[in-house]
Amino acid sequence: DAKTTQPTSMDCAEGRAANLPCNHSTISGNEYVYWYRQIHSQGPQYIIHGLKNNETNEMASLIITEDRKSSTLILPHATLRDTAVYYCIVSAYTGANSKLTFGKGITLSVRP
Amino acid sequence: DVKVTQSSRYLVKRTGEKVFLECVQDMDHENMFWYRQDPGLGLRLIYFSYDVKMKEKGDIPEGYSVSREKKERFSLILESASTNQTSMYLCASSLWGDMSNQPQHFGDGTRLSIL
């Protein structure tokens, strides 16, 4: 699986958009970009994923660059409950090797 | 919404005990997974199952076994618990099909302490 690089931490003001960057310069053509988050003492929560087109759901938007070497997760109106560790994962599921490799992630702190 | 339920949030057991961790999902998912999460090591896959009675080893299966007798239930068994198995255990499930395009959905975890 391709590796990802994320900043260690960032913060944003409540109500503003939070833009979380991720670099995955070695991504290959069949690998998807996934975003999960983990709030303290809870299990990881799936947010969104995509291959090469931008994606949007009720939680967030995912913007993938044309060369697919980086992506940005956008939380359009951050709330205090969005404070969490956010993981960017690049993975191609291959049957017996189907697994998610979580790195250190980025800690997002939403301030009042 | 997908619901993955783990039987206990916190569990304390003694060295040498046989420990059962239970996981149930309500979305008719074919795939189920067991991970452990430790500080600095991220999530590591212990076992997964893609069908009833089927199982595959993950990265760290030693000291563990699993059971999948029904589609919705996946059990992790610590045959003889040891202190180095103190960890957060996470269960996940996903649909079959194009597995690269199927997100995994997690339970809230069981924090297991072995004394």
Strands, helices and their partners?
The complex is a heterodimer of chains A (112) and B (115).
Chain A: E1 9-13, E2 18-23, E3 32-38, E4 45-50, E5 55-56, E6 61-64, E7 70-75, E8 84-91, E9 106-111
Parallel strand pairs in A: 1-9
Antiparallel strand pairs in A: 2-7, 3-4, 3-8, 5-6, 6-7, 8-9
Chain B: E1 4-6, E2 10-13, E3 19-25, E4 31-38, E5 42-49, E6 56-57, E7 64-70, E8 73-78, E9 87-94, E10 105-106, E11 110-114
Parallel strand pairs in B: 2-11
Antiparallel strand pairs in B: 1-3, 3-8, 4-5, 4-9, 5-6, 7-8, 9-10, 9-11
Question: How would you characterize the overall build of this protein?
Answer:
The complex is a heterodimer of chains A (112) and B (115). Chain A is mainly beta and 112 residues long. Helices cover 0% and strands 45% of the residues of chain A. Chain A has strands spanning 9-13, 18-23, 32-38, 45-50, 55-56, 61-64, 70-75, 84-91, 106-111. The radius of gyration of chain A is 14 Å and the shape is globular. The model of chain A has no long low-confidence stretch (mean pLDDT 90). Chain B has 115 residues and is mostly beta strands. In chain B, strands 2, 4, 5, 6, 9, 10 and 11 form a 7-stranded mixed β-sheet that branches. Chain B is globular and about 40 Å long. The N and C termini of chain B lie far apart (36 Å). In chain B, 34% of the residues are buried. The mean pLDDT of chain B is 92. The chains are: A mainly beta (112), B mainly beta (115). Chains A and B meet through strand 4 of A and strand 4, strand 5 and strand 10 of B.
Q: Main β-sheet of chain B: number of strands, strand sense, barrel status?
A: 7 strands, mixed
Instruction: Show unreliable segments of chain A.
Output: none
Spans where pLDDT lies below 50 across 5 or more residues of chain B: none
On the 0 to 100 scale, the average pLDDT of chain B is 92
Structural class of chain A: mainly beta
**Spatial ordering of strands, largest sheet of chain A:** 1-9-8-3-4
Number of strands of chain A: 9
Element string of chain A (H = helix, E = strand) = EEEEEEEEE
Largest binding interface between chains:
A-B, 25 and 25 residues
Proportion of residues in β-strands of chain B: over 45%
Share of helix among residues of chain B?
A: under 10%
Give the amount of beta strand of chain A, in percent.
35-45%
From the spread of the alpha carbons, the general shape of chain B counts as globular
What is the CA-based Rg of chain B, rounded?
13 Å
**Counting H and I runs of at least 4 residues, what is the number of helices of chain A?**
0
Give me the Rg of chain A, rounded: 14 Å
User: How would the global form of chain A be characterised?
Assistant: globular
Helix segment count of chain B?
0
* End-to-end gap of chain A: 37 Å
